[in-house]
């Protein structure tokens, strides 16, 4: 499975401990998402379309109604990157 650069960025952020919070409408459909780094900063690079793509491919999931995190499949798909801290 080939993963695009924006998908890689989101998965790498989630692999480091970040998560995605979602807002739902009255029907329970996801209308907005916020990607949060492990340090608590908001990252604007995860659009709703990209979020749905990652969810459809089962690279991210939510457990018990909590925030979305990376799955084991997502961890295997993400390429390792040097952390520039």
What are its keywords?
three-stranded antiparallel sheet; globular; single chain; 3 helices; YjhX_toxin; 31% helix; two-stranded antiparallel sheet; alpha+beta; UPF0386 protein OQ273_18860
Describe this entry's structure for a reader.
The protein is α+β, with helices and mostly antiparallel strands. The chain has one domain. It is about 30% helix and about 25% strand. The chain has 3 helices and 5 strands, in the order H-E-E-E-H-E-E-H. The longest helix has 11 residues, at about 5-15. The model has no long low-confidence stretch (mean pLDDT about 90).
Secondary-structure blueprint of this entry?
Blueprint: H1 5-15, E1 19-24, E2 30-36, E3 42-43, H2 48-56, E4 60-62, E5 68-70, H3 72-77
Antiparallel strand pairs: 1-2, 2-3, 4-5
Give, in spatial order, the strands making up the sheet with the most strands.
Answer: 1-2-3
Report the C-alpha radius of gyration, rounded: 12 Å
- How many strand units? 5
The best one-word shape is globular
Instruction: Give the termini distance in whole angstroms.
Output: 29 Å
Helix and strand element order = HEEEHEEH
Q: Overall pLDDT, averaged?
A: 91
Our count of domains comes out at 1
Helical fraction? 25-40%
Q: Tell me the strand percentage band.
A: 15-25%
User: What is the structural class?
Assistant: alpha+beta
Biggest pleated-sheet summary: 3 strands, antiparallel
The count of helical stretches stands at: 3
Low-confidence stretches: none
């Amino acid at each position: 499975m080939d993963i695009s650069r924006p998908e890689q960025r989101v998965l790498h952020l989630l692999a480091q401990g970040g998560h995605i919070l979602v807002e739902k409408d009255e029907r329970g459909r996801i209308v907005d998402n916020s990607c949060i780094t492990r340090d608590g900063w908001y990252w604007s690079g995860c659009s709703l379309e990209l979020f749905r793509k990652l969810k459809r491919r089962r690279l991210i999931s939510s457990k018990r109604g909590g925030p979305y995190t990376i799955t084991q499949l997502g961890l295997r798909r993400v390429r390792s990157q040097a952390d520039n801290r």
